[in-house]
Amino acid sequence: MSKVFDISGSAKHFAGRHPLINFIFIQITFWITAEVLLALLFHFMLSAFSQIFTMNDQKALFMNRIFFGVLLGIIYGITFGIMDYFFERHYFRRLSLGISLLIKTITSFIVFLTLYILIKFMFENYLRPMYYVNAPVFNQEFWKYLFYMFILYNYVMILIINFINQVNKKYGPGVLLPLLLGKYRKPRVEEKIFMFMDLKSSTTIAEKLGHLKYSSFISDSLMDINLIMPKYNAEIYQYVGDEIVITWSLKSGLSNRTCLKFFFACEEEFKKRSEYYLEKYGIIPEFKAGLHMGKITTVEIGEIKRDLAYHGDTINTTARIQSVCNDYKKHLLISKFMFDNFDDPVKNKNYRSESLGMIQLKGKLNPIEIISIEL
User: Fold this and answer.
1) For a tag on the chain, would you pick the N or C end, based on fewer CB atoms within 10 A?
2) pLDDT by residue (tens digit) across 69-108?
3) Is residue 178 in some structural domain?
4) Is residue 342 within 8 Å of 306, Cβ to Cβ?
5) C-alpha 196: how far from its chain's center?
6) Looking at residue 226, which CATH number applies to its domain?
7) Same-domain status, 156 and 198
8) What residues does 310 pair with on adjacent strands?
């Protein structure tokens, strides 16, 4: 069981580093499985009829059907993988769910129709003369009913793959398998890195922009943060108003100081898009953040709305660290415990670190040392 969960962690790491390749790989794996399943069903059905009617040797054709199933799976996987990935990132960001589903449905139909026409052409002109010399010429009625079968089957498969994609969006890549295996049905102790990012001067900005424009401003800001996350192996735990809570595994977050790089990458992204924000809102987003690591308990909660929840002092401490950013006029504060877990952090010339001393955080019995990190 633990090996399965290790593979799940590796899947998250790979997905973060190579989101496009990971997305296409998932699609290819799914569609190969789906099309090979269809080929097997088709083979068993024809094998059953061959016991009653005179038909070609079905065993001899078995590997050809499997081969075509794999080939179709690869074609579908690459086509839909690339299409969905770029549509989601560049075109569906601002569209409603209904419009997005309508466009996907129309596009999927066009793709299926194109592939169907291509398969029909290849079979009649190349494959049948080469491999099925004695096979009868199929009339239009045959191809019509075959088309209905493919459309019905493949749309059911599209619903399934969309469900998988939605689960990945909800919980993050690599979580579906542990959920299916019941990993978090009972509380599990894990070690994680947490970052609480909160919009600076949110009250003033809300008063200036008004409710509707402020919500649009928050949406744009969080969307830009979301687009940066895969590169830095970051996962979203939850949104709370204008605050976003982000997590890493210890390996992902500590390696090469990824969690620090992520925060400054967000700041750099807002600078790159400053012209857009100034033109639309007259304000460039600025976020403050607290960073801490430690043991937490992970458990699957809820019945009507199911979710993964993290509990523990690590989360509370991270939130308290973020809450004192304004007091010290700093953008990024981390615990000394977190700081000490980086590989030779003091020797890293990319960052300037300053100890703010032992600070009594609200709700904490004992003060903890806080470090300020700047570029």
Assistant:
1) N
2) 788 788 878 887 777 777 766 666 666 656 766 777 777 7
3) no
4) no
5) 20
6) 3.30.70.1230
7) no
8) 298
